[in-house]
From TrEMBL:
It is found in: Cell membrane. The chain crosses the membrane at residues 9-30, 125-149, 161-188, 208-225, 268-292, 312-338. The keyword Repressor does not apply. This is Peptide/nickel transport system permease protein. It comes from Salipiger marinus. The lineage of its organism: Bacteria, Pseudomonadati, Pseudomonadota, Alphaproteobacteria, Rhodobacterales.
Amino acid sequence: MLTFAVRRLVLAIPTLFFISFVIFMLLQLAPGDPMAQVPLTVPPEVKEKMRQALGLGEPVLVQYWKWLVQVFWTEPKIFIDWLTRDSLLLGWLPDTQLYQGELRVISWQTRSPVMDIVLQRLPQTLWVVGLAYVVGVLIALPIGIYSAYRQYSVFDQAGTFVTMIGFSIPPFFTGPLLIVIFSVYLGWFPSIYDTTHVVNDWASFKVQIYQMVMPVMVLALQTTAQLSRYMRASMLDNLNQDYVRTARAKGLSEAVVVMVHVLRNSMIPVVTVIALGVPAIFGGAIITENVFKVNGIGQLLLTALFANDLPMVMTLTFIFAMLIVLFNLIADILYGLLDPRIRYD
């Protein structure tokens, strides 16, 4: 297993390089000028110096190489300093554009380091998007298991109806609908997520929970709808297998048969959906974060797209690509843990 993981990690390096090159070249074809937002009162010679400082006057391949050095060499060193809370590598001051004399990835929109902005927005995304995904998985798995075990029952039909709604209704409709019902008419929850709210006591913690309820509900509904159908289909496929009849014939209790033997084999295809859904939900949270004004990664990406901030878009897109590669590896490793028949020799 360790050899397989190391081999996959080594293979992921050229894969990520190729993905980054494709993303970079596609974004270079995007129309627009990052200097378009500069006030008209700025003299042309000043604009030209600003353009050169942003690296816009250099060839595309030179820009790509500089971006690679910044992302794979400069930013990891800064991240180590940030984790250790100490300048072990020396030369770094937070919120500065240089590190040991090396230029960092700079946002064209804010003129500040991209990774500093990402780290500022990341906690909000983890609070909302991460919790929504965990809630969605914890709700979807029991629903899928029980729906398969009680196939065509009232619970199964109700679950099918709810999941079809979750599949059919997009977040840009579900979000405003919840705001109208629970914020405007009932007044139970705030319609706007306050990113400046600080949790320091029980009262502030309740306020945080209240403002998280609706965005978490919107995102968890999609996750629950998808995973519960996969779980139900996988359970139904295994409930009729010969090994299940053999386990029952040996006198094992129904709980052991379903929750140990059937569930373990049924989780193999579901693990893929869960693992690959982690990076997907970060991208899918763009609409939800904008509906509820959550100052997270999704809103940051959309703002960067509107502002034609290519370094920001490039970095965020590459982070999503890294998450996909990483969770693909995690899913493959979990296969071997769930099914002893799978070997990576």
